[in-house]
Amino acid sequence: MSNHRVLILEDQPFQRGFLANMFNAAPGIATDTCGDAAHAVEMCHWRRYDLVVTDLMMPGVDGIQFIQALAAQEHRPMLALVSSASQRMMASARLMAESLGITVLGILPKPVGPADVGELLAQLELASADAAPASTAAEAPIVASRERLCEAISGGQITAWFQPKKSLDSGLVVAAEALVRWRHPEHGTLQAGRFLPLIQQHGLEPALLRHILKASVQAQARWREQGFRIPVSINLPPHLLERSSLPDELLELTLAHGGVPADLCFELMESSTTHHVSDYYAGACRLRMKGFGLAQDDFGQGLSSVHNLVSTPFTEVKIDRALVRGCARDPALHSALATVIALGSKLGLNIVAEGVETDAELATLRRLGCNQVQGFLISRAIPAETFGALLDQEKAAHRHTDLGHPDTRATR
Ligand code: C2E
Ligand code: CA
Ligand code: CA
């Protein structure tokens, strides 16, 4: 465990001392405490904290106002919220903090126990490791001309990486989602969010879609040679369905590169919709008629409605991370998740949970009957070669456990 500085903000002296003792007992943690939010804002100004653990209900400046003040500071520590307030109030407070750009590591309902603190510190360790390289690479969107982008696409700097989807039945990687990455010569490997807005501005989404489809089919061919049949999902912004020939073009491209439509699934994203709703339904029907799979992306967040889910010929539903994160602790999220999974299974859909980061979330999803999981707990998106190596490794491990100990196969 590396060294971290933690500030505990709690107005009740007994609670404050109790929390401080638990944090101080962990190796590598230095703890300061404070009973007053206005004073805590000052402390955060003068000292660089990695984590602030704050109560919400406090006299004078309350926890919400404290978070708002914290967001205005140059260095924003990560947060953990402690409160006896309702779960929905806590969830709302979390969204408020996140929309101000503050990372919320956890929500701890009172009374907080040593196990909660242990889990929170494990998250802190993970998040700090993640943040370290990224903190120097600014989050600012990339600037590039249309020509530069076209070059990066045709030259292969912009390409597909693959995030594994693991079956909760077999415990094996059974599918992948293609996620676009740019191996930028100056800025390193860029996540989708850094340059997708540019791709959109320059009207290059159709070109990107074709490019990712081609890369996915090529990756599948490589994995097939290794002996694996891995269906791949590809993100499709629904407004592209306004072009009525799109399903025909996608089929032609797939076949031209030796791909199999049944092993490709288009994820209809939340980000856009067609001008005429009929184009959306026509496109969805025709993609299915060509033999492609069809997934509702990001279900449970934003626009995606239950009506849309039941009236589009989907084969899969992807449950958004907004419903997954914290589902093990939050009864409201847990109920929403149970309902979505029950609905998905009644509709005969493959149910995939996105953004699974903890063992507790995984266990909850398994109990609720989710089919597949995708998230940092299993793996981030990786290049096709690395994905292939992962498949080989998993197969070797599987064979080994099958021979030696038939009951001990990892089912993560
Ligand atoms: P999405 O379709 O919801 O994809 C999942 C995003 O969540 C990916 O980010 C993935 O890296 C990230 N993610 C996966 N597991 C976890 C986890 O456990 N925790 C957290 N916090 N995040 C996780 P990425 O690759 O940056 O993509 C962001 C969005 O950009 C995607 O969201 C998708 O809407 C869009 N996108 C990605 N690739 C493409 C593409 O090829 N074409 C188009 N049109 N859009 C794409
Ligand atoms: Ca997606
Ligand atoms: Ca999502």
Automatic annotation (TrEMBL):
Keywords linked to the UniProt accession: Phosphoprotein
InterPro entries per the UniProt record, alphabetical: CheY-like_superfamily (IPR011006), Cyclic-di-GMP_PDE-like (IPR050706), EAL_dom (IPR001633), EAL_sf (IPR035919), Sig_transdc_resp-reg_receiver (IPR001789)
Domain annotation Response regulatory: ranges: 5-125
Domain of life: Bacteria
Residues making up the signal peptide according to the UniProt record: none
Classification via Gene3D superfamilies: 3.40.50.2300, EAL domain
Residue intervals of the EAL domain: 142-395
Entry protein name: EAL domain-containing protein
Organism in which the protein naturally occurs: Stenotrophomonas nematodicola
